[in-house]
Design a protein that fits this description.
globular; alpha/beta; about 290 residues
Amino acid sequence: MPQVALITVHGMGETPRDYAAGVFGEMRTRLGPALRERAAFYSVYYQDILQKNEQTVWARVDAGSKVHYDQLRKFMLFGFADAAGLENRKEDPGSVYELAQGQIARALLAASAANPVDAGMPVVFLAHSLGCQVLSSYIYDAQKALGGGRVEAGIWRDIDAWSRPALGRLLSERERLYLAGGACAGMVTTGCNIPIFVAAHKEMHIKPIAPPTAMFRWLNLYDPDDVLGWPLQPLSEGYRVLVEDRAINAGQGAVGWMLKSWNPLSHNGYWQDKEVLEPLAAMLRRLVS
């Protein structure tokens, strides 16, 4: 029976369904034969909610317009369309915001079922880029809902109304707490752009999630050359206390010279880098050793 779950949340842009295969393989290797069987791996995938429409728009622009920097334009179109789509009319039933949260809940539900004893096995999240905002909003909404607050959008506006059609049943109290992040022991965020979503708010309104568990640790890794990756501690006192920011040089190796200045590859180079993989593996080892 697994003892820890790693759940990934992808970022902005065109994303294949098996986007996490590489990092899962790296974790199995780094954990080694003695520990790899104690870890379970799950990936959240919400790009299919957005991708078909984005591909249609890109095909029209690419075929009918004379534009330069095709790959950069495609990255920007898919990436910022993702962000806009998630925030646009998110209060509507069945919104992209709600559907993406549903995918996180399903991954957590699978982890909950894999180790059904007591409160469930600890969870570590690995989120990238826009996925950091998606995950943070999910946990924030869940904590607010469980605390009796009013949630305006997403599945935590009424978790029972989501679970009935989505699962065909109501959640147990144990599942409800688990889906709210009640066993979350760690988060590793890479290329995080939460500051873009909160920069227009007054500092007093910029509040992070509460630590879900006593063992919770949030490690935020960013490359100073990646303009879509940001430190979080400067946002507010709450983030300063909660998050450990760490500057890294993402994407070192054969293409490293290309990544000294920002381009789409620099933003997508984190999950292949040892400065991300080793701290993530260490977080998992801490929970299974």
